[in-house]
Amino acid sequence: MHRFGLAREHVVGLYRIVVGFLFACHGVKSVFGLLGAHTPTPTGQWPGWWAAVIQLVCGALVVVGAATRPAAVIGSGSMAYAYFTVHVPNGFWPIENGGEAAALFCWSLLIVAFVGPGRFALDGLRSGHGRLAVKRSASVGQAATAWRASDSTEPGTGRSTTTG
User: Is the whole-model pTM more than 0.90?
Assistant: First the structure.
C-alpha cells in the first residue's frame, strides 16, 4: 500500500489538471461560442455569462496550479449555486434535472480545494512545497518500514513488541 503513497502527489496533480481543463472548457464554450456551442452567451447576461467567466478563469487557474485553493472554492461555489438555482427547479436528483456536470464539478473542485494542488503546480514551485511533499511522505514510509523491520519496540512507548 505504501507505493500508492509515493504516487499520491502526482495523481492529485493530474486530477487537478484534468478537472480544471474540463471546467475551463465549459467557460470557453459559453464565452466564445466554441466547442459545440451554437452561439456565445450574451456578454454581461446574468447568471450565464458570469458563470462562464468564472468557469474559464477558475478553470485556467486550477489547471496551472496558481491560487489553486481559492479558485477551486469559487468554482465549487458557483457550481453549487448553478445546481440549486438552475437545476433543482426541474427536479431534485441530478440525473433527472440535467445537473450532473454541476454536481460533479462542485464536488470535484471542493476536493481540490481541500487536498491542495499536488504536483505540477505553480503554487508548489513558488513555495517549494511541491517537492517537499513527496520527500516527506517517502521519509515517513521509510521510517515505518525500518520500524517494522526492527520489530523491537512500539513507537513512543519503548515497550517491546516481541514475545518470548
Answer: no
Greater model confidence, 65 or 134: 65
Domain annotation covers residue 154: no
Reported as a pLDDT band with limits 50, 70 and 90, residue 78 is: very high
- pLDDT tens per residue across span 105-120: 999 999 999 999 999 9
Please check whether residue 46 lies inside any domain of the structure.
yes
Sequence-separated contacts (24+) of 58-61 with Cβ below 8 Å: 58/20, 58/23, 58/24, 58/109, 59/20, 59/21, 59/22, 59/23, 59/24, 59/25, 59/26, 59/27, 60/20, 60/24, 61/20
Query: Which helix (DSSP H) or strand (DSSP E) does residue 51 occupy?
Result: helix 48-64
Is residue 124 a part of any domain in this protein?
A: yes
Residue 61 lies in a domain: yes
